Amino acid sequence: MRCFLAVVTLLIASPCWSYDRTFIEGANNNLGEALQFLREYDNEASSMCTRVTEAQWLYATNITEQNRKRMVDALSLQAKLDRVSWQKVIQFSWSSLPDPMARRQLQMLALKGRAALPQEKQNELAKMVAEMKEIFNRARVCPFATSASSQCDLSLEPELTRIMAHSRSYEEQLHAWKTWRDATGPKLRSRFSRYVELANEAARLNGFRDAGEQERAAYGVDDFQSQISEVWSSLAPLYRQLHAYVRSRLRKHYAIPHRLGPTAPIPAQLLGNMWGQNWKNILDLVLPYPGKRRADVTSEMLRQGFTPLRMIQISEEFFTSLGLKPMPVDFWHKSLLERPTDRHVACKASAWDFCNRRDYRIKQCTEVAMDDLQTTHHEMTHIEYYLHYADLPYVFRDGANPAFHEAVADAVSLSVTTPKHMHRIGLLNNITDDYETDINFLLEMALDKVAYLPFAFIVDQWRWQVFSEGTRNMNTAWWELRSYHQGLLPPVARSEDDFDPGSKYHIISDQPYIRYFISLVLQFQIHQALCTAAGHVGTLHTCDIYRSREAGRVLSDIMSVGASRPWTEVLRVATKGSASGLDARPMLEYFKPLSLWLRVQNRDERMIGWVTTDQDTALYEQWSRGSASKSISHLLSWAAPIITIASSYTIIR
C-alpha cells in the first residue's frame, strides 16, 4: 500500500510504514536460545562499541592519518559483527516469542541498519558515503574580493560560516552561498544517486518498500507521517508571522525592492546561515528593542574569573540540584574541556558513552562565554541520559526514539537559557522583567527554534521522495519544498546539475534528519511537563526547573527506560497521560506572547506568507510543464500539510 497524505484540512491517520517479516524472521521460536543469543550479543556488542568509541575519540582529539586508519579499521570490524549478528537474529521467529523484552530487542536488531546487503555492496555503500564526506570536507572556495595573491582556500568552517553570519553585503553573501554549492553539489550528484540505489536495496532486503520507509519505522508509529505533517500545519502560522516580520526588516536594511518584495519569498542567502535553517545571526537586523539589555552574561563570567572547569562544575551542580547523578570519576580525568595547543582536534562539542558503564566524557573546546555555558549543560544532559540507562541491555541504551536524546537535552537548555536561571546562579544581578525585554528574548529564541522548523521538516520529506520516486529532478524538488514551506528562493538560477541538497552534510553523510524536527516539538512538550512537576507559575518561557526534585524525578523516569519502551509510552508517563504523541501546543504556548506581538507588528504588511511567481519558479524549474509538474504536485501532496488560507493576507502557493 502506498502512503499518501490527503490534501484536505483533516489529515486521515493511516499506516505509513509496514514490512514483510518473511525477509527478516525465521522459524526458530526457542526462547532459551533467543535469550542466550541476546546475552552473547550484549557482551560482544558492548565490547565492540568500547573499541570503536575509543578509536573515534582518539581520532577526534588527535586528528592524524594514523588515527583515522585505526578508526576505519575498528568501524570495519563493527560492521562485520553487525552483519553476523543480523544473520543470527533473522533465524528467530521473534514476533512469536512470549518474552516482550526479548521480542523487542530482536525486532530492533532485525529492522535497523544495512546488514542485509551482500558484503561487496555493503563495502560499496560505505565507500560511497566516505567519498561524499571527503568531497564535502575538502571543498574550498575563492574569497569574494580576489587579487593576484588570493588563495582559493576558504572552507565551510570557519570562513564561509563566519561570512554568512556576519556579512551584511548582499553580494558577498551571494558569493559565499553560490561558490559553496558549486564546490560540492556537482561532484556529489552521481555518487548520491548510487547511494540511493544501495540504500533502497538494503531496505527491500529487510522487507521494506524503500529506505525512507525503513527510516520511518524507527519511530514505530503507524501514522508517523500524518503526525509530523499535522504538527507542522499547526506551527506554520507562527512561522509565517515570523517570516513576514523578518522580511520587512530585511527590506529596510537591504533596500533592494526588485530582489526582496513585500509579498515575495526571501533570498536564501540573507538569513545568516548557509542553509537558511537558523536565523539567530541576523538578530542585530531584526531586534525590536535594541536599547533593552539582553541577558548575555559573558562579561560577568569573565569578571568573576570563570574557567572551562568551573563551567562544567556549574553544569553538574544543575543536575545534582535536581537529585540526579554526579559525574563519575573517569569523566573528570578523561574529558577534553579546552582546545589543546599541541595537536589538531575536532572542536564540535559532543558527549561520549564508551559502552562499558563507567567511562563517559565530554569533548568541547570551551570558551568562557554564555553560549558555551549553555552548551555544557546540553552535553551533560546527554551524559546524564547515558548514566541513567547504563544498566539496560546494549540494544536499549539509547533514547526512546531517535529524537529523544536531543529533545531532553534541549528541554534542559530551555531552563538554563532563561534570565531567571542566570540570576539564580549569580551571573545576572537584576532581572529586567519588562515587556520589551521579554519580546527581545522570545524573538531571539524564535530565530533559533521557530525559523528552523520548516527546514527540519523538509530535508527528509525530500529524501524520502527521492528514495520512493527516484533521482530525477532532485534539485527542482528540493527548491519546490523550500519555497513552499520555508518561503525561501535561490538567489540565482539553479539547474539539475547543481544538486543543492548536497551542500548539507547530513544529506550526503547518510544521517536521517527528521529527528531534528521531532526534537524541536518534543523539547517543548518535555519542558512543559518538567515545569508542571516543578510547580512553575507564570508563562512557560520564564520557567526554570533548577533545584526542583520533582522535575528531577520526571527526568529520571524519562531517561532510565532508555529505548526499552515505545517513546509514546515514555511521553505519556512524563506528561501524566496528557500526551502520547507529538503535540504542537506546548511550543505555541511558549511563544504565545511573541505570536500576539508579531500579529500587531505585521498588521500593515501586504501579506503574511508569500507568493511564488512564475518568475521565481523559473529560477529552479528546469523542465517543461506537464508530466514533471505532475510529479511535483505528487511530492507536495505526499509530503506537505495543507496550509489553509486563514485570511486574505495569508496566501501561499
From TrEMBL:
Signal sequence segment: 1-18
Family indicated by similarity: Belongs to the peptidase M2 family.
InterPro entries xref list: Peptidase_M2
Disulphide bonds in the chain: C347-C365
One Pfam family named in its UniProt record: Peptidase_M2
Enzyme class: hydrolase
PANTHER family associated with the record: ANGIOTENSIN-CONVERTING ENZYME
Cofactor: Zn(2+)
Cross-referenced SUPFAM superfamilies: Metalloproteases ('zincins'), catalytic domain (SSF55486)
Organism: Nesidiocoris tenuis
EC number(s) recorded for this UniProt protein: 3.4.-.-
Cofactor binding description: Binds 1 zinc ion per subunit.
Keywords: Carboxypeptidase, Disulfide bond, Glycoprotein, Hydrolase, Metal-binding, Metalloprotease, Protease, Signal, Zinc
Record protein name field: Angiotensin-converting enzyme
Residue stretches spanning the membrane: none
Coiled coil: none
